[in-house]
Amino acid sequence: MDTGKIIESLRKKLNWSQSELSDKTNVSLVMTGKYERGEAMPSIEADKSIANAFNVSLDYLREEGVNASFDKKTVQRLKDIQSLDSDKQKMLFKLIDTVIRDTKAKSAYNS
Question: Rounded distance, CA 42 to CA 2, Å?
């Protein structure tokens, strides 16, 4: 998915009009439409403003980098996990692994 489609998808997910997005980002309505249609690429300033409005990282908006699939809240949680002592990390990862395993098993069973 390209940046314009990501912008459009995030905007629709929040039930915002292009005008609302334009107001929240100080990006003109004309340019907002051009970005979504893939007729123009946002400048770095516009990218930052759009990413902040959606509370996602620039990586996420551009689908680049190691954090491209994570929103800011998820990235912050990962950073917080890294700051925990190793015993707490192990306990948390064990819980996460258990939930993931159970979810996959349930999904496979229902297929």
Answer: 12
For residue 36, count other CB atoms closer than 10 A to its CB. Answer: 21
- In the chain, the largest separation of any two C-alpha atoms, in whole Å, equals 52
Classify domain 3-70 at the CATH class level.
mainly alpha
Q: What is the pLDDT of residues 32-78, one digit of tens each?
A: 999 999 999 999 999 999 999 998 888 888 877 656 667 778 878 88
Which DSSP helix (H) or strand (E) runs through 18? Answer: helix 18-25
Instruction: Give dist(CA 52, CA 14) in Å, integer.
Output: 14
Q: Are 44 and 51 in contact (CB under 8 A)?
A: no
Name the β-bridge partners of 56. 71
